[in-house]
Specification:
alpha+beta, 3-stranded antiparallel beta sheet, 5 helices
Length: 167
């Protein structure tokens, strides 16, 4: 699935880092121990990310350092954020078939829900769709909950007929 594979030796780290492109990629770091869990991620700059993870550790830092554990680096360069996300999904699904969805951290997009079944209709922000047979109407999706809240606040204070309208 990942196209390139390099053996990592800490004593030759400068040569390895210089051979790796400074572009977007999905990568996987493996240890010698077959029972050890691999580290899988995507990045906008592969060289910089590997240098941060595999360079000699700085004193008194809590930054993750895998230098003494990693024995091989597998990676594929990508051309867009969409391609990186899709490849990350495929790699995680192959490596962690039971837990890949939790590792992707996929979240439902926020929606604006108009509760029209109530005597006094109101609006709320949700990430779940309800029954389609109900009278509720959904608007969205929004990029973030903050964007949905801004839209709701702007819509409830705008004037169509000279006054604020209630949702």
């Amino acid at each position: 699935m990942l196209r390139e594979r390099i053996e990592f030796r800490p004593d030759h780290d400068a040569e390895i880092f210089s051979a790796i492109a400074a572009s977007a990629a999905v990568f996987l770091l493996r240890a010698d121990d077959p029972a050890a869990e691999p580290y899988v991620s995507k990045t906008a700059n592969l060289r910089r990310r590997l240098q941060r993870l595999l360079s000699p550790p700085e004193e008194r830092t809590k930054r993750l350092n895998l230098r003494d554990r990693v024995r091989s680096i597998e990676y594929s360069l990508t051309g867009s954020d969409f391609e990186s996300g899709f490849l990350l999904y495929r790699v995680l699904r192959g490596v962690f078939p039971k837990t890949y969805s939790n590792r992707l951290r996929l979240r439902f997009a926020p929606l604006l829900k108009l509760h029209l079944e109530n005597e006094y209709p109101r609006a709320s922000i949700t990430t779940r769709l309800g029954r389609f047979s109900g009278k509720s109407v959904y608007y969205g999706p929004f990029v973030s909950r903050v964007a949905a809240e801004k839209f709701l606040n702007d819509a409830s204070t705008s004037s169509k007929c000279g006054g604020a309208w209630t949702i």
